C-alpha cells in the first residue's frame, strides 16, 4: 500500500486531494500497488468535506506513522513548512511541494538531507504550475550546456497585464479578479512585486547551473508602477509588457539573473502568452530553443504537478532520484551586477516643455526611437534607447532628471 499525507488544505492542497482521489485507480496502476491519502493536515475544520475522516491537526500523526512514504507539503511559507520538511526527510519520508519560497531559500540544504536519508525532495509544482519544467531541465536537457532560461513565470501578473493590455482594466481591478480565481499568493505582494517569479528563476537557475542562486542575489522589480499609458506607448511601438524572469551564463562563466517587466516584441512567442498562462524558454547548446507553455497557477494545474511528484516518489521508494545543486552561500559573486550588462530601455518622461528636451536626449543616447500615442500630453515624451550598459543609461537619466521627471523606465526584451 502506498500511503500519502497532505499538509495544507488550501487551494493547492484541496486540488491535490481532489485530483488524487479522482484518479486513484489509474494512479495505483501506474505505481504498481494500491495507493491512498491517509492524512490531510490543516488547523481548520472541514466537517462537510468528503475526506473529513482523514483530517488531522497533528503533524506527529504523519511524522510517526511508518506507513506514510510520501508527504505533499502545500502549506507554503518558510517557517512551519521548513521545519516539517526537514523532520520528514530526516525520517526517510519523501516530500513533494509547490512551495517555491522554501525551495528557493533552502533547496540545497533540503536536497542534501533527502539524499542522506535515501528519500526524495521533489518540487515540479514550484515553477510554472502545471507545466513540466523541472524534470525536463534535469533529465531530458541534461546533455546540454544551458545558455539561457527566460520566460513568464507568474500567472497572477500575466493575468493582470493581459487585462490591462486587452481590456484597459485598471491594475487594482485585475488583481482582485486574479485573487478571486485563486491564482495569487496569500499575500499578493509577492506576485506583483516580482518576488514569486524571482524564486522561480532562482530554482531553474540553480538546477541548470548546479549552484544555489538565492533570491537576494537577483535584482527583482514588479509591475505595480506600470500604467495604462506605458501599455499604450508599448503597443504603438509594437510591443507588449510582460514580467520576465531570466538567467543566462556569461562568457566568463558567471550568471546574469534578473526579474523585471519588459517590452516584448509582438513577433516574439512570449508576447502571445496571455492570462494565467506561463511560458518558459530554455536554450541549450545542443537542442537550441525549447518552449514550455501551460497554466502557471490555479488549483488543478498545480495539483497535476504535485500528484505527478507523489507518483514518482511512490514508484521510487528509498531510491534517490538524481536532483541536486551545491550550496553557494560562500560565493555571492557568481551572479553579476545587472547594471553592468547591456540593455535597451523604454523611458517615459514628463517636463514642462518636453519637446525642447529632445535634442539633449538624442545627444545623450545617440540613435533612439521616439514613440507617439493618441492625445499625448505636451508635457510627456517616450522613447527607447539603443542597447548600452545599464549604468550608462542611468547616468544619462540622472542628468535628465534635473530638467524632467523620469515617469517610467522599462527594459526591452
Ligand atoms: N501566485 C503564483 C502565480 C502561483 O500567480 O503564478 C503559482 O506559483
Give an overview in words.
The protein has 413 residues and is of the alpha/beta class. The protein folds into three domains: 157 residues, 3-Layer(aba) Sandwich (Rossmann fold); 161 residues, Dihydrodipicolinate Reductase, domain 2; 71 residues, Alpha-Beta Plaits (2-Layer Sandwich), CATH 3.30.70. The chain has 14 helices and 18 strands. Helix 5 links the parallel strand 5 and strand 6. Helix 5 runs parallel beside helix 10. The mean pLDDT is 96. L-homoserine (HSE) binds next to helix 7.
Main attributes of the structure:
single chain; 413 residues; alpha/beta; Dihydrodipicolinate Reductase, domain 2; Alpha-Beta Plaits; ten-stranded mixed sheet; six-stranded parallel sheet; binds L-homoserine
Question: Care to give the gist of this entry?
Answer:
By secondary structure, the chain is an alpha/beta fold. It has 14 helices and 18 strands. Strand 15 and strand 16 form a beta hairpin.
Topology overview:
Elements: E1 2-7, H1 11-22, H2 24-31, E2 35-41, E3 55-56, H3 59-63, E4 68-73, H4 80-90, E5 94-97, H5 100-116, E6 121-122, H6 134-140, E7 146-152, H7 155-167, H8 171-180, H9 189-192, H10 195-209, E8 219-220, H11 228-236, E9 239-249, E10 255-265, E11 277-284, E12 288-295, H12 299-315, E13 342-343, E14 345-350, H13 358-365, E15 369-371, E16 380-384, E17 388-389, H14 390-400, E18 405-412
Parallel strand pairs: 1-2, 1-4, 2-3, 4-5, 5-6, 8-10, 10-18
Antiparallel strand pairs: 7-9, 7-11, 9-10, 11-12, 13-17, 14-16, 14-18, 15-16
The structure holds L-homoserine (HSE).
L-homoserine (HSE) binds next to helix 7.
